[in-house]
Specification:
With about 220 residues, this protein is mostly beta strands. About 5% of the residues lie in helices and about 40% in strands. The longest helix has 7 residues.
């Protein structure tokens, strides 16, 4: 019985409210809008504004929420990134920690930290690194560390087609190009790249990937 008294991991408090939709006799939407409200991530009915589900963490608050197909991805004030089932809030699928970011988030906020890349990939940008996760299963695909003396600036990242341009000021560098890096779902944009295999597990995977940053998840 002791295990039943343990608090929820990470202080999770997930409260589905699907009965509101059933009472109205309409099927719940598969992609409800998302927002942060009252210290929680909330999916709501666009027509009525009523909450469909809420997800809170004890002692913490969400700084940003990013909608993806079937996923509600949130960044919290303690540097935790979570992924909740979007359509009904039935489960928190994953928790991913961003070490050493709590003070930085408090000082600079969460603008630009969570970015969707092509082919179902999530980029998490912090001053020290860019980490890319496959949205479908949370698999870490690659890491791009900032160069020595340089720092990424998430708030100054902009999209250009399928490419994400991220500011990376390097005070010791004279070249203006050193202050900018271009990435997509494969990592650093470069010619003659072989596929990293970021698709579903049942799809064919290419072998090798020159200079994506740091490849941490080989094709499976």
């Amino acid at each position: 019985m002791v295990h039943q008294a343990r608090p929820a991991p990470y202080g999770d408090r997930l409260a589905p409210h699907a009965r509101v939709d059933h009472a109205r006799g309409t099927p719940p939407p598969s992609r409800p809008p998302l927002r942060t409200a009252g210290g929680a991530v909330e999916a709501y009915d666009a027509a009525t504004g009523r909450a469909r589900w809420t997800y809170a963490r004890e002692g913490h608050r969400p700084l940003a929420v990013l909608p993806a197909r079937g996923h509600a991805i949130a960044l919290w004030d303690d540097g935790l990134v979570t992924d909740t089932t979007r359509h009904d809030g039935s489960a928190v699928r994953r928790h991913r920690a961003l070490p050493g970011t709590t003070r930085w988030l408090a000082d600079h906020g969460a603008t630009g930290v969570l970015r969707l890349l092509g082919d179902g990939m999530l980029a998490v940008i912090t001053p020290e690194r860019v980490a890319a996760y496959r949205v479908a299963d949370g698999d870490l695909r690659w890491i791009l560390p900032a160069r020595p003396g340089c720092r990424f600036v998430p708030a100054r990242a902009v999209r250009h087609g399928a490419v994400l341009l991220i500011a990376r000021p390097c005070p010791a560098e004279d070249r203006w190009t050193a202050g900018l890096v271009a990435v997509d779902d494969l990592g650093i944009v470069a010619p003659h790249r072989a596929p990293l295999g970021n698709g579903r597990r049942d799809q064919s995977r290419g072998a090798g990937h020159p200079h994506p940053g740091k490849v941490v998840a080989p094709p499976r």
